[in-house]
Amino acid sequence: MRYLLFFLLLCSTAEAMAGWSDLIDMFTSSNTDDPQTQLFSNAEIESALKQALVKGSEQAVEMLGKTNGFFSHPQLKIPMPEKLQLIESSLRKLKQDKLADDFVLSLNRAAEQAVPAARSILVNIIQSMSVEDAYQILNGGDTAATDFLRQRGGSQLQQQFQPIVKQATDSVGVTQKYKSLIDQLGMMSGLIDTSSLDIDRYVTEKATEGLFSIVEKEERLIRQNPADRTTELMRRVFSSL
To answer: pLDDT tens digit string along 1-59?
Structure first.
């Protein structure tokens, strides 16, 4: 009888220990260093970040892809290319400000005209985001998503965007205004090296920089301000950070 009681006590103790073990495992598994893995599925995290990037991209296109989107922007207005700044200075000394101003305006108009086409290019890059990318971005800094977009898709965007910019520069007469700019200096233009200047590439790079600048600003707002999280999934995921 005594051995039977001991055996039953041993069994009940083992069962209790097993129960505690299960409870401890359950508790620790729900309190990992990365709580997002418990709160949201991989698909939800990935989708929320894609929504945030698409929102930022659409906002950038809407702001910059209209008349005066670049030209009236205090930080993103496209200036005279550095290689032509000596020409600009000379023209202004000769009271030919309008030539310089018209050329700068044409650069900005070309970018404004081309920018709407960047939306589909940016969205395609965003859709290529992987689950691993999403986790790194979610736990990164205030501009981690934009940094990903810039690093992963910056060169791709420029490559696909440049032919569209070329059409825009042709449409607004950038090349003709550039020629007028040089011709006005006559013999003095020979003193300035403009042979390596690619106007289309210059506008493409400036337009791309402008787009990423606005996307970055939007990302900061989404991370910091709940009112800028325009979908339920974005509100849930970003509020957990």
So the answer is: 444 443 334 444 444 334 433 322 332 333 334 444 457 777 888 888 888 889 899 99
Q: Is 34 left (phi over 0), alpha (psi -120 to 50) or beta?
A: beta
Helix runs in 173-224, H state only: 174-183, 199-224
- Spacing of C-alpha 22 from chain mean position: 45
* 177-210 core/surface letters (b: 16 or more CB in 10 A; e: else): bbeebeebbeeeeeebebeeeebbebbbbbbbeb
Average pLDDT over residues 82-109: 87
Closest of 80, 89, 57, 97 to residue 215, by C-alpha: 57
Q: Is the dihedral angle over the CA atoms 68, 71, 76, 81 positive or is it negative? A: positive
Question: Would you give the end-to-end CA distance of the chain in angstroms?
Answer: 60
Q: Hey, what are 104's tokens?
A: 């700068």
Q: Which two tokens stand for residue 209?
A: 């920089």
Residues 6+ apart with CB under 8 A from 35: 240
Q: How far is CA 29 from CA 25, 33, 37, in A?
A: 6, 10, 10
**In this structure, are residues 40 and 138 in contact, taking their beta carbons and an 8 Å threshold?**
no
The predicted pLDDT at position 105 comes to: 95
3-class secondary structure, 207: helix
**Residue 8: Cβ-neighbour burial (10 angstroms; 0-12, 13-18, 19+):** exposed
Q: Can you give the pTM of this predicted structure?
A: 0.77
Identity of the residue numbered 124: N
Residue 125, judged by CB atoms within 10 A of its CB (0-12, 13-18, 19+), counts as buried
